[in-house]
Write a structure and sequence with these properties.
Radius of gyration: 27 Å
Strand content: 25-35%
Shape: elongated
InterPro entries: Peptidase_S1_PA (IPR009003), Peptidase_S1_PA_chymotrypsin (IPR043504), Peptidase_S1B (IPR008256)
Largest sheet: 8 strands, mixed
Keywords: Hydrolase, Protease, Serine protease, Signal
Organism: Euplotes harpa
Number of domains: 2
Enzyme class: hydrolase
Number of helices: 8
CATH architecture of the largest domain: Beta Barrel
CATH topology of the largest domain: Thrombin, subunit H
CATH class of the largest domain: Mainly Beta
Number of strands: 25
EC number: 3.4.21.-
């Protein structure tokens, strides 16, 4: 922080990856968490990054489809809720000794939520039609920047009036960006997509990589005609072809059942989405047989994903036939995998360059058995947001080292 005559000016740095937690309670409990996709910083703050101008605000977006489901004791969330006025109705008029709350996560408290109560000392109008809130009898610490500032009325109801931005050394006061009507309109514009994003985290979030070429779904009419040899205008099957199967699609499940006897083309990439949709013994048997019969000699990329972390044990036989021929990347998303299955995944992935286990639950012990006779060629292992099933915590460094040993050619 560089202190000037009137302002504290900060040096700008941009995060490469960020995650949102809803109702975090320590290291291992939360209602959900999801990666931030992109964000927008107010342009006036970018011009002059000062906490006192009333422009220290940003809007970040996430997708609930990426969210890890609740972890921890569900009863913890069945507490008395307070009414909070939604999205800054902002009828705020400063009154002497107005009571406020700051509810946030002090950095030294390791992810636990804390509430601090104080009173407003005053507000100050800034250039550009913004205002800041000043409060002196409320101490905050690093980590609470960005926390909401609530006005507390006599009935105990809360209204969001600002965003805590930090401590102003020169004036010996805490400051918050007041959510004025003008700032509210800017925030709404960001949410509705009217304002271009500043930073996009999508390239830093591990997801199945789009092939960048033509994609043909399994339930398209042209593909069906092609496989049955009746198409007048055949689809060219080469590196551009990605076969996509969706377990939640009745058409795709029917396709898997009917395609058993077809002579399948040598596709290069395969995506199996919502694998839990193959939820009967018959549909699982159809999928496994389909994979055994149709898998080419080499695949560049395989993605298998679920919702609500289905157990992949019933599918491991068929998936093993896939993993064994993958040369570039195996991507497993939102699945539950036990130790035996994980050992088979490693054994069958020995030719792949990259193995990604993203948002998975792993049921593993402290000792993970690896077949050291296999010549592993995996160059990259990604365990982003992958948790231990026992304690619902993201894998710590010691467990990651257990996995990393599997990348070696010897003990």
């Amino acid at each position: 922080v560089q202190e000037t005559e009137d302002y504290d000016t900060v040096d700008l740095n941009y995060a490469k990856r960020s995650t949102i937690f809803l109702s975090r309670d320590g290291k291992g409990q939360f209602l959900f968490k999801a990666p931030i996709l992109n964000y927008v910083v107010h342009p006036e703050y970018l011009k002059k990054p000062r906490i006192h101008d009333g422009f220290d605000v940003a809007v970040a977006t996430f997708d609930l489809k990426d969210a890890l489901p609740p972890v921890g004791d569900p009863d913890r969330f069945k507490r008395k809720m307070v009414k909070i006025t939604p999205f800054f109705t902002n009828s705020f008029i400063h009154k002497a000794e107005e009571r406020i709350l700051i509810i946030g996560y002090p950095g030294e408290k390791n992810g636990y939520l804390y509430e601090m109560e104080g009173t407003i000392h005053g507000t100050k109008k800034r250039k550009g039609g913004t205002e800041v809130i000043i409060y002196r009898d409320l101490d905050t610490t690093c980590g609470q920047s960005g926390a909401p500032v609530y006005k507390l009325d006599e009935e105990g109801e809360l209204e969001i009036i600002g965003i805590h931005v930090g401590y102003f050394k020169k004036k010996k006061a805490n400051l918050a960006t007041l959510i004025t009507q003008k700032l509210k309109q800017w925030i709404l514009g960001c949410i509705e997509g009217e304002i271009p994003i500043d930073r996009d985290f999508n390239s830093n979030i591990s997801r199945p990589k789009e092939p960048g070429l033509k994609k043909v779904s399994s339930n398209t009419l042209e593909l069906e005609k092609l496989l049955q040899g009746t198409s007048d205008t055949p689809v060219k099957i080469d590196s551009s072809f990605t076969l996509t199967l969706d377990g939640n699609s009745p058409e795709d499940r029917k396709f898997v059942q009917e395609a058993q006897s077809w002579q399948f083309p040598a596709f290069k990439k395969l995506e199996i989405k919502n694998i839990e949709g193959f939820n009967t013994e018959e549909s699982r048997a159809d999928l496994i047989e389909f994979l055994h019969n149709s898998t080419p000699e080499a695949l560049k990329y395989v993605m298998v994903s679920g919702a609500n972390h289905p157990d992949v044990t019933p599918f491991i036989e068929g998936l093993g036939a896939l993993f064994d021929v993958v040369t570039d990347e195996i991507y497993l998303n939102s699945l539950k995998i036990d130790q035996d299955c994980l050992a088979k995944v490693f054994a069958k992935s020995c030719k792949a360059k990259r193995l990604a286990l993203i948002w998975c639950f792993l049921d593993i012990s402290s000792v993970f058995e690896i077949d050291w006779e296999i010549d592993y060629t995996i160059e990259e292992l990604d365990l982003y947001m992958t948790c231990s099933e026992f304690d619902s915590k993201c894998l710590d460094s010691s467990k990651i080292r257990v996995f990393a040993r599997a990348l070696s050619k010897s003990c």
